[in-house]
Structure formats: structure tokens, C-alpha cells
């Protein structure tokens, strides 16, 4: 009897939750419950921090032994440094030409440091709960960046925000699509999507665009392929090109990208909270 | 899950008298505490402990061990509350689905309470791994229902196999903890005392 009742409760909850909108009562209940247990999660996160550090240390030790990988990393850093310099120069030229109508994201967003409080306990969901919310200026569609091994880069976007917590959906979640550009490849634009774990793929780049390994990939500020405004402002680094595939019969080329940041290894991120009207409009879509 | 060979008895006072099960009310609170601890670990620490894309499912291990120690009713309630807690505290994007999956896992494992398998390590590990596999496949099924594509080979190689292996590793300590806290297996619900 109890079992049957619980099964019915589960099915009713699942059915209602799936049908209601993001601001429905069950989503609200989920947010409230999350806010209620946030202090507990905060304490738990602090309590398990030494264990996380220990695990991270073990991983670092393993990495340290892999000298070839480290050298490859240094090479990538140098390449991305060069690419970044080119991007900066291109952006400066563009901003100067437009006499102050630049779209650099640093001016429009406040950087809100956040701690990851909880992870989706399944590899199917690339999401995490943060300890900052609307009270810190974080809103839905705020981009999220984090420090990587080589440099900082885009990791995701806020998909849900309550007063004191928010949920970030990482760029590695299946179904994600980000408009990106390669300034070293004649500003070619394409759609960046997750492919294999740890890798992403840009589609829609013309075959003749001079894409090469080591080129910097940044957000384009527009959704692809229909060039609508994107919640991601132009110029946030995402990763570096690690492979290019061209076929004679295809009008487009496939570009493989390694993101700068691996979300699953993060403990802290920075949320870009909109500060200007332009950034707020961008977040509202 | 056969009972051919002699089971390996897991008891904190092996060789002496078996552990006396706690009072029902105390045991229920203890089981609730174990589920809560498993949920906290599952959403805060264990996502960092990963091999490929696999994460140990300590909640499945805890639900399986609690169900083996106290039977179907307690296992079912533990699974339901654990799954629901995860859905309320972690950004999984569903409500009720995980609760249903863990509920079914708890109900299934509770069938073996007080049987020789519930005293042994290996069957417990096998059941916990089966529960973790069931939950992962259920998740994958939900993803397919929601329109996402799940590649079978990738699911098996990068998610299922590492998850099950890691879950097998964490089950033994979870079993020891559950037995220490709850005592020897004893079915709580009167209905389950009848032969299954």
C-alpha cells in the first residue's frame, strides 16, 4: 500500500513537473527546498573540501608524471597566447573604427565569484548549483567563466536563478549550441556544440576559411545559424582549435575544439552579472 | 544470487553473538541519517571522484544496504526519500523520476532481507551494482524520452562500466557502516515476514 502510494506520488510529480513552465509551483518548490538546504550544502562542501583537495592532488600527481602532456600544454599556451594577441589587436582595431561602440564584455558585466555547492549526480546532466543568486545581480542567461589550466574561458550559462542560489548549465551539456568566431580565420563564424567528452565541434564554417590548429575560439555575440542576439557577449574565449576536417564534397569544414576549462574539475566559477542596459537586454533575449 | 555456498557473514562482532537490531524507531532515524549522508556525498564530493564519465553511486549502495538490512518497506521509503532529496538539492532537471528509480531499487533489494544473501558481502555488492545500473539506464531512458540522443556504445564504455565499477568499490564500506548503525538484518514490515 505504502509502495503503491509512493509510486503514484512519483509519477504525479514527474508528470506535473515535466508539463509546467520554469516558473511553475513545482519548480518553485524545488528552488525553495534548494534554498532551505543551501546552508547544509555549504557546510558539507566545506567539510568535504579536504577530500576534494586530496583527490585533486592525486590527479595532479598523476599529471605531473606525464611530461609529454605538460609540454603539449605549454605549446598550446604559447599558441593561444599568439592567437589571443591577434584577437586583441583585431578587437582594438574594430573598436577604434567604431569610435567607442565596442562590444567588449568586460564593460557590461560585473564579475561575481561563486562556489559550486552541488553537482548533478549523473553524467547526463552537466549542471551545478552555485551559491550566488539574484541578490548578487545574477540573472537567467548570465554567462559563466572559470579559470582553466591554460587560461580562463567560458564554461556555461545560468539557466535558473533564485535569490541566493543559481544553476549553471555547462557548455558540455548535450543540446548546447554557442555562436563562435575564429578571428584568425577571416572571422569565420560557426556553431559550437559538444561532441565527445572533453571535446567540442564547430559546424557551419565554410570550407575555404583558413582554419588551423592552435587558433583561438571566442564567442561571436550572435546565435548561429540565424544570427539572432546570443546571451553570450562577443569575445569570451572558449577554447583552442585542435583539429580540422575538410572533405571535397562538403561545403563546410568540421573544426574540433578543446575547451580551456573542464567543468567537472571546477570548485569555483565567476558569473558575469549584467550591469548595463545592453547586457540586460542580451540576457532577456 | 544463489545460496549454494556458505555466505560470508558480515558482522562487526564476527565470531560472537550477532548484532542485536536497534529499536524500530531508532533504526528508522539512523536509516534516515544514512540516506541524508549519502545524498550529501552524492551531490558534493563524488562528482569529483570520476573515471571517464562515471561517478560512484553511493546512494544506490546505501539504499541497497539499508533495504537488505530492514526489508522492502524501509528500502522503498529510503529509496524514495533519497531520490527525491537529490532532485530537490541537485540540478538534475526532473522531479519524481529519480525518486521512482531509487524506490524501485530499494523495493527490489528489500526482498532479500533476512535471507542468507543479506548477510554476505558479494551478493550485497552485486545488488548495489545492479541498482546503480538500473538507475543509470533509467536516466538514459528519461534522456531518450526527453528527446536527447544516447549512444549505446558511449553509454556503456564511458558511463555505465565506470559507474558500476566505482559503485562496487564504495559498497563494501557502506555495507559495513550500515551494519554498524542498523545491526543485523531484520525485516520491519510484518507483511514481509511471509515467504517471498
Explain this structure.
The complex is a heterodimer of chains A (about 280) and B (about 200). By secondary structure, chain A is of the alpha+beta class. Chain A contains five helices and twelve strands. Chain A has helices at about 1-20, 25-65, 65-95, 105-110, 275-285, and strands spanning about 110-120, 125-130, 145, 150-160, 165-170, 180, 190-195, 200-205, 215-220, 235-245, 250-260, 270-275. In chain A, strands 1-2-5-4-3-12 form a six-stranded antiparallel beta barrel. A six-stranded antiparallel barrel of chain A has the order 6-7-8-11-10-9. The N and C termini of chain A lie far apart (about 50 Å). With about 200 residues, chain B is an all-alpha fold. In chain B, helix 1 packs parallel to helix 3 and helix 2 (about 60-70) crosses helix 6. At the A-B interface, helix 1, helix 2, strand 1 and strand 2 of A face helix 1, helix 3, helix 4, helix 5 and helix 6 of B.
List the helices and strands and how they pair.
The complex is a heterodimer of chains A (285) and B (196).
Chain A: H1 2-19, H2 25-65, H3 67-97, H4 105-108, E1 109-119, E2 127-130, E3 143-147, E4 152-161, E5 166-170, E6 178-182, E7 188-194, E8 200-206, E9 216-219, E10 237-245, E11 252-259, E12 268-274, H5 277-284
Antiparallel strand pairs in A: 1-2, 1-12, 2-5, 3-4, 3-12, 4-5, 6-7, 6-9, 7-8, 8-11, 9-10, 10-11
Chain B: H1 24-44, H2 58-70, H3 72-89, H4 97-110, H5 121-145, H6 152-182
Amino acid at each position: 500500500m505504502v509502495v503503491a502510494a509512493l509510486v503514484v506520488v512519483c509519477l504525479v510529480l514527474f508528470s506535473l513537473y515535466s508539463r509546467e513552465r520554469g516558473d511553475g509551483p513545482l519548480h518553485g518548490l524545488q528552488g525553495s527546498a534548494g534554498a532551505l538546504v543551501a546552508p547544509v550544502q555549504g557546510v558539507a562542501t566545506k567539510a568535504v573540501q579536504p577530500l576534494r583537495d586530496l583527490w585533486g592532488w592525486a590527479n595532479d600527481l598523476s599529471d605531473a608524471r606525464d611530461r609529454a602532456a605538460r609540454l603539449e600544454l605549454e605549446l598550446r599556451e604559447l599558441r593561444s597566447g599568439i592567437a589571443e594577441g591577434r584577437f586583441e589587436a583585431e578587437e582594438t582595431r574594430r573598436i577604434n573604427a567604431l569610435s567607442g561602440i565596442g562590444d567588449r564584455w568586460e564593460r557590461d558585466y560585473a564579475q561575481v565569484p561563486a562556489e559550486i555547492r552541488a553537482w548533478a549526480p549523473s553524467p547526463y546532466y552537466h549542471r551545478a548549483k552555485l551559491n550566488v543568486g539574484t541578490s548578487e545581480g545574477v540573472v537567467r542567461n548570465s554567462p559563466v567563466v572559470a579559470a582553466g589550466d591554460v587560461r580562463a574561458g567560458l564554461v556555461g550559462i545560468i539557466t535558473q536563478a533564485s535569490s541566493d542560489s543559481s544553476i549553471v548549465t555547462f557548455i558540455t551539456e548535450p543540446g548546447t549550441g554557442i555562436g563562435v568566431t575564429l578571428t584568425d580565420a577571416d572571422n569565420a563564424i560557426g556553431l559550437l556544440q559538444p561532441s565527445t567528452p572533453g571535446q567540442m565541434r564547430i559546424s557551419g564554417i565554410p570550407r575555404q576559411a583558413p582554419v588551423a590548429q592552435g587558433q583561438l575560439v571566442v564567442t561571436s555575440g550572435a546565435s548561429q545559424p540565424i544570427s539572432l542576439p546570443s546571451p553570450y557577449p562577443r569575445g569570451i574565449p572558449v577554447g583552442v582549435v585542435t583539429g580540422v576536417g575538410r572533405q571535397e564534397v562538403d561545403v563546410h569544414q568540421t573544426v574540433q575544439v578543446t575547451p580551456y576549462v573542464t567543468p567537472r574539475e571546477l570548485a569555483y566559477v565567476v558569473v558575469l552579472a549584467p550591469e548595463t542596459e545592453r547586457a540586460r537586454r542580451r540576457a532577456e533575449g | 544470487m544463489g545460496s549454494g555456498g556458505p555466505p560470508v557473514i558480515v558482522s562487526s562482532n564476527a565470531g560472537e553473538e550477532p548484532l542485536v537490531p536497534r529499536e524500530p524507531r531508532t533504526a528508522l532515524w539512523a536509516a534516515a541519517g544514512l540516506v541524508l549522508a549519502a545524498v550529501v556525498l552524492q551531490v558534493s564530493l563524488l562528482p569529483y571522484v570520476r573515471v571517464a564519465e562515471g561517478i560512484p553511486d553511493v546512494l544506490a549502495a546505501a539504499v541497497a544496504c539499508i533495504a537488505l538490512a530492514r526489508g522492502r518497506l524501509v528500502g522503498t521509503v529510503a529509496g524514495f526519500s533519497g531520490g527525491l532529496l537529490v532532485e530537490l538539492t541537485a540540478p538534475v532537471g526532473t522531479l519524481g523520476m529519480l525518486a521512482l528509480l531509487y524506490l524501485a531499487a530499494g523495493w527490489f533489494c528489500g526482498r532479500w532481507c533476512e535471507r542468507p544473501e543479506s548477510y554476505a558481502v558479494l551478493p550485497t555488492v552485486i545488488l548495489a551494482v545492479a541498482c546503480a545500473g538500473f538507475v543509470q539506464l533509467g536516466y538514459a531512458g528519461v534522456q531518450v524520452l526527453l528527446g536527447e540522443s544516447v549512444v549505446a556504445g558511449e553509454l556503456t564504455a564511458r558511463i555505465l562500466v565506470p559507474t558500476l565499477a566505482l559503485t562496487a568499490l564504495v559498497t563494501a564500506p557502506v555495507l559495513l557502516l550500515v551494519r554498524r548503525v542498523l545491526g543485523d538484518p531484520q525485516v520491519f514490515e510484518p507483511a514481509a515476514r511471509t515467504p517471498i
